[in-house]
Amino acid sequence: MVTKNYQYLLALIFAVNEINKNPKSLLNVSLGCPFAEGFFRPMNFNQNIMDFFSEQKKIVPNYKCGTETNLIAIIGGKGPENSQKLATILDIYKLPQFSYGEFAQMQTGQSHLHYSYCMAPNDIHQYDGIVQLLLHFKWKWVGLMTMGDNTGELFVKNLVPTLFQSGICTAFIENIPAFFFFNEFLDAQDKRKESFLTVAQSTANTVIVHGETMAMICLRELLGQGAYDYEKAFGKVWVLTAQMEFVAVALHRDWDIQVFHGALAFTTHAHEVQGFQDFLQNLSPDLAKGDDFIHIFWEQAFGCSFPNPSFKGDSEKTCTGKEKLEQIPGPFFETSMTGYSYSIYNAVYAVAHALDIWYSSRAKSKSRVMVNSRRLEYLNIKPWQLHPFLRNISFNNSAGETVHLNENGEFLMGFDITNVVSFPNKSFHRVKVGWINPWILSGKHFSIEDDAIVWNRIFNQGYARDGLGPPPGFAEVAQVLKFEPPAPKKQVIPISLCNDNCQTGYHKKKEEEKPFCCYNCVPCPEGKFSNHTADMDDCTACEDDHYPSKDKKQCIPKAVTFLTYEEPLGMSLVIFILLSSSITALVLGTFIKHHDTPIVKANNRNLTYTLLISLFFCPLCAFLFIGQPDKVMCLFRQIAFGIVFSVAVSCVLAKTITVVLAFMATKPGSNMRKWVGRKMTTSIVLCCSFIQAAICGIWLATSPPFPDVDMHSVPEEIVLECNEGSMTMFYCVLSYMGFLALVSFTVAFLARNLPDSFNETKFITFSMLIFCSVWLSFVPTYQSTKAKYMVAVEIFSILASTIGLQACIFFPKYYIIVLRSDLNKRDHLLKRKV
Asked: Which residues of 516-527 are buried (b: 16+ CB within 10 A; e: fewer)?
């Protein structure tokens, strides 16, 4: 006998007695309640059903003689399979069936549902509650355990897709090994060990268990064996469906339920009914009449036996009948009203109210009804006549709650979520910590109180009771489990994930050949961040004016940068600019001072001055590249640089051509004399410079440069720069300048062997070689640098090419003018030979 189920019978008796004692209900008529137990055997179950339709002690269906009772409803069918078997027979008689457990979902839409009433919530709502519970605690990696029968397969078939749609994975789906007889128990040893290891070694800390009475007995057998590592199974959060109950039979009296400490259980909604506790406390085998089970219950629940005159043996313990039910461990009997008992209680009242409504409707059609005829009316009622009154029935029970059955025969109530707190005496206490009720109109269908939950001690090295100290029995549990209770502290909610959450600065990356709940955590890519530990699928990109920190946890505002005078790089460039221009001014001044000396006059004095003036302005063009870019600066900096340098290179080209023409004109009969002179050099300089100016004019007219903001080249900076408008035109300017330099280099190289007295083409060759090398290296360097360093590269190229021209062309002459004036004489120059 499953002693715990005895409360269902007591709830039935209590409700019937309460109605019979109520003078306002069913006057002059009493309700009765025959009952039977199936003992897990289908044959016994079917036999008990047929007993209701047969003469006493004889199974002759539909034959009754001399009885003054009328069977008007059946309360039974705990479990889908039993409810289906019962409904199949009751459907013939159209007899109302009140199933106080879940009804078989596979029967939805069948005809017998017209005569069946389910006092337990629909399992569909339980699936939703399980998902809501898992999502609330962020448990994404869970295990499933169920019996390997039709209901277990149906549970897995319905729940797993729902979990999948909610982003929850199943670490394992394990059948609970079942046994009914001793030989099966022995045969299942290996299977139990395999199942235990699957559960215990899984990384899933949350296990959802579905089944009925036998499932809990088998599960406790699976987890309670000393041959396995008990601690591994202890470290799980057990989520039990409403079908699961903590039950035990006499064989398991020494088993405890510490492994389920902290479990969360869905239960059919229950409410304490006034007087039920007193009814249980006053229960005694001597006072119970017509109850054939109380003696069996009493002996198995208390582990004693009543004296039997025909048996002379010595009993270990004799039942006195004075034992108290509150002394029995919870797995054997609960003194608080369970959800199933509450459903039975409401079912009895639903029948009574339907009878009252039915009788009231008949009384209205008659002018007078005698008291004796009232009894005859009730005895003559046919079961099918109650169905119109049971549909949409609503009444208030003695517990103060409204009981309502809708047109489909469903009890409009949800599930309670209870926390199981176990005790050393192998008992437990249920604490209601939440609920799910889809019938609430307010919109909030799910609720749970985290602070009210006591978790398994594996997950917490402390406890939290809002300053009230440990929960009842906690010290005793600590003593039994041999660990010292630490000081009170906030509880840590257990984690059940395939892997740790991705921390801030990381995002998920799918692992191949593993469920989608299993992944690696990889750092956020460049330009993105993650400031949540919520297993982000991808990191979030920072806004354009922000960049991610090194740990990728936040975005930091970018600094606005450009090449300034105040920074060391800008100051260094300014010094070199001023130094270069000053040297050029010094050389120009020296040349002007010694303008009548032969070495100054030797190679076109005016052209030399023009070249020096252009070289003076070349470094000064770099000032347009330093400072915050504005419209004027952007328009003129590349234009000024291109034109000034073109003038300088044109002068060099003119000097080179002048030298060549001068030596050609000295030959007898040469016609080159007419080309030697100021007009030719001026024409070369103006013509070459005009072409560069024309290119710059086309650039300004078509796609002029403009101030711009670059937020992407440098991750940590907002770069203020000049957008060149058209890079093609920019490289055209550079290409033309390079073309002039290449022509100058070629001509100078070819004229390098002319007499040294009047020839500076060797110096020009070296200067143009340096000039071309600088600007050829400038192009790749310029393209590979970013931000203000691009500007610095161009300034450096300007300075390097300017200094190269100064050093190669003018340093030898300056040396002679200043330090070797003895060489700066016409006679000396004329005597010099190649």
From this structure: ebbbebeebeeb
Longest CA pairwise span in the chain (Å): 164
Asked if residue 481 has pLDDT above 90, the reply is no
Q: Which CATH class is domain 3-121+338-404?
A: alpha beta
Mean pLDDT of the region 796-800: 91
Run of H or E residues at 430: strand 428-436
DSSP assignments along 18-39, one per residue: HHHH-TTSSTT----------T
Tell me the pLDDT tens digit for each residue of 698-713. Answer: 999 999 999 988 888 8
Mean pLDDT of the chain: 80
Residues 694, 351: Cα–Cα separation, whole Å: 106
Whether residue 460 has pLDDT greater than 70: no
DSSP helix/strand/coil, 440: coil
Q: How far is CA 642 from the centre of its chain?
A: 58
Q: Under 8 Å CB-to-CB from 730, ≥6 apart: which residues?
A: 638, 699, 724
Q: In terms of pTM, does the model score above 0.90?
A: no
Tell me how far apart the alpha carbons of residues 139 and 495 are, in angstroms, rounded to a whole number: 6
For 90-128, write each residue's pLDDT tens digit.
888 888 888 887 654 444 445 446 788 888 888 888 999
Specify whether the CB–CB gap between 374 and 322 falls below 8 A: no
Predicted pLDDT at 68: 58
Could you tell me how many residues make up the chain? 834
CATH number of 123-241+246-268+414-481: 3.40.50.2300
How confident is the model at residue 266, as a pLDDT?
Answer: 93
Both tokens assigned to 176: 């609970």
Of 624, 641, 642, nearest to 633 by C-alpha is 624
> Using 50, 70 and 90 to split pLDDT, how confident is the model at 714?
confident
Strand-strand pairing, 528-529 and 540-541: antiparallel
Q: Residue 391: name the closest of 403, 377, 376, 409 by CA.
A: 409
568-831 CATH choice from 3.30.460.20, 1.10.10.10, 1.20.1070.10, 3.10.20.30: 1.20.1070.10
* Residue 310 confidence (pLDDT): 60
